[in-house]
């Protein structure tokens, strides 16, 4: 059994720990938090044997062979580098780092330590997206002509929602890190590499209250529009907002020369649920829903829709550790690539121009 320690009691409690509890060949040994009472409460609630007041103590625990980092992005690099130094496999939440340089350092450390390293890109595990990937690989759509992605939700639409690290760009907050990084990862996983992009980001709710009601400036973006050009010339448009009073959900539209494909969910509360697939064929009046094959469906559903795809990810992570498969994906290589795209978006916004994205197709965003 692979002993797992989870750092963080927010997303760690709601998604990471339940996902690892469902993984074959894994045992959740402990949870760590800077708020020790919170760690104790989560450990008791989820029947985790140990709790740690310091994540450094967790890394010293010989029962733990892997750590899952579910903390704010500003803490990822320090924790990951220390875990690599301790010889622990690492599953790090997205965004992997604060910038591409930091992500590169984490990638090199993991490679030098010869440990399995994953990033929490669970959207690759959504059955509807996996089905779309199969159709694209089978060239069912023909040559792509245009791709459109919209992710419009209201998670932070209430101006009275309290200021937190998510409101602070220097701590990795913002809709790009919360939502956009997923899109950048699955776009290249589905369609291939991005060659260039242009972008505009905005902060539409500029202040939020602290617990005492005092207002603090929001330095992170809450919506963005991005135009991308793939290396094969395909144009892609992307619009993301998590401050829409009433959004329409998460939709991916792929328009090919033979037919079109739409993958989407109108669930505004649970971002992991509700994805379906529609196919449009020339000469037919409207798109028809296409059922996702049973072999791609989840073996088990959870009340929180994010757990099922994350559980698939954790199973892949655990299997890779047991097999010492250092090339399993999605890895820090993919996390670094997504960070390169995030950095390019911010550069394009600042310069008000198109930005060439460094790097060629190479090995990034490969299997699975």
Quickly count the domains.
2
Helical fraction equals: 25-40%
- DSSP, total strands: 17
Low-confidence stretches: none
Q: Identify the CATH architecture of the largest domain.
A: 2-Layer Sandwich
Widest sheet: strand ordering:
16-15-14-13-7-12-11-8-17
How far the N terminus sits from the C terminus, by CA atoms, comes to 23 Å
Cα-based radius of gyration, to the nearest Å: 20 Å
- How does the major sheet shape up? 9 strands, mixed
Overview features:
six-stranded parallel beta sheet; 2 domains; Dihydrodipicolinate Reductase, domain 2; 31% helix; globular; nine-stranded mixed beta sheet; alpha/beta; 9 helices; Rossmann fold; 368 residues
Can you walk through the features of this model?
It is a single chain. The longest helix is centred in the last third of the chain and has 20 residues, at 332-351. With 368 residues, this protein is of the alpha/beta class. Strand 2 (26-32), helix 2 (36-45) and strand 3 form a beta-alpha-beta unit. The mean pLDDT is 96. It is built from 9 helices and 17 strands. The protein starts with a strand and ends in a 12-residue tail after the last strand. It has helices at 11-21, 36-45, 55-59, 76-85, 100-113, 127-137, 175-191, 307-323, 332-351; strands at residues 2-7, 26-32, 50-52, 66-69, 89-92, 117-119, 144-152, 194-202, 207-209, 215-217, 223-230, 235-241, 249-256, 260-265, 276-280, 288-289, 355-356. Helix 1 (11-21) crosses helix 8 (307-323), helix 5 packs antiparallel against helix 9 and helix 7 packs across helix 9 (332-351). 48% of the residues are buried. The strands form 3 sheets. A 9-stranded mixed sheet has the order 16-15-14-13-7-12-11-8-17. Strands 3-2-1-4-5-6 form a 6-stranded parallel sheet, with helices on both faces. Strands 9-10 form a two-stranded antiparallel ribbon. It folds into 2 domains: 2-122 and 313-323, NAD(P)-binding Rossmann-like Domain (Rossmann fold, 3-Layer(aba) Sandwich); 124-297 and 331-356, Dihydrodipicolinate Reductase, domain 2. The radius of gyration is 20 Å and the shape is globular.
């Amino acid at each position: 059994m692979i002993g797992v320690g989870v750092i963080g009691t927010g997303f760690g409690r709601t998604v990471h720990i339940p996902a690892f509890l469902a993984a074959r060949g894994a045992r959740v040994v402990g949870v760590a938090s800077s708020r020790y009472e919170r760690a104790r409460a989560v450990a008791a609630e989820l029947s985790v044997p140990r709790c740690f007041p310091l994540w450094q103590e967790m890394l010293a625990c010989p029962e733990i062979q892997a750590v899952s980092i579910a903390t704010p992005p500003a803490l990822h690099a320090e924790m990951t580098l220390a875990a690599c130094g301790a010889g622990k496999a690492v599953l790090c939440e997205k965004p992997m780092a604060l910038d591409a340089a930091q992500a590169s350092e984490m990638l090199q450390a993991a490679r030098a330590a010869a440990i399995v390293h994953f990033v929490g890109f669970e959207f690759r595990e959504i059955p509807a997206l996996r089905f779309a990937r199969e159709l694209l690989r089978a060239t069912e759509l023909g040559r792509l002509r245009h791709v459109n992605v919209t992710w419009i939700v209201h998670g932070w639409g209430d101006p009275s929602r309290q200021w937190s690290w998510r409101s602070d760009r220097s701590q990795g907050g913002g809709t790009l890190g919360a939502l956009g990084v997923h899109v950048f990862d699955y776009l290249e996983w589905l369609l291939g590499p991005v060659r260039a992009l242009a972008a505009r980001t905005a902060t539409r709710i500029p202040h939020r209250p602290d617990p005492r009601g005092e207002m603090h400036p929001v330095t992170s973006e809450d919506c963005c529009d991005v135009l991308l050009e793939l290396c094969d010339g395909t144009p892609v448009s992307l619009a993301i907002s998590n401050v829409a009073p009433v959004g329409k959900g998460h939709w991916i539209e792929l328009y090919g020369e033979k037919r079109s494909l739409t993958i989407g969910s109108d669930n505004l509360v649970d971002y992991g649920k509700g994805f379906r697939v529609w196919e449009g064929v020339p000469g037919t009046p409207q798109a028809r829903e296409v059922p996702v094959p049973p072999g791609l469906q989840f073996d088990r559903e959870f009340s929180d829709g994010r757990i099922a795809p994350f559980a698939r990810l954790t199973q892949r992570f655990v299997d890779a550790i047991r097999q010492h498969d250092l090339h399993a994906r999605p890895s820090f290589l993919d996390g670094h690539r997504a960070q390169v795209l995030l950095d390019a978006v911010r550069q394009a916004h600042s310069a008000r121009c198109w930005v060439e994205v460094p790097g060629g197709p190479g090995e990034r965003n490969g299997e699975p």
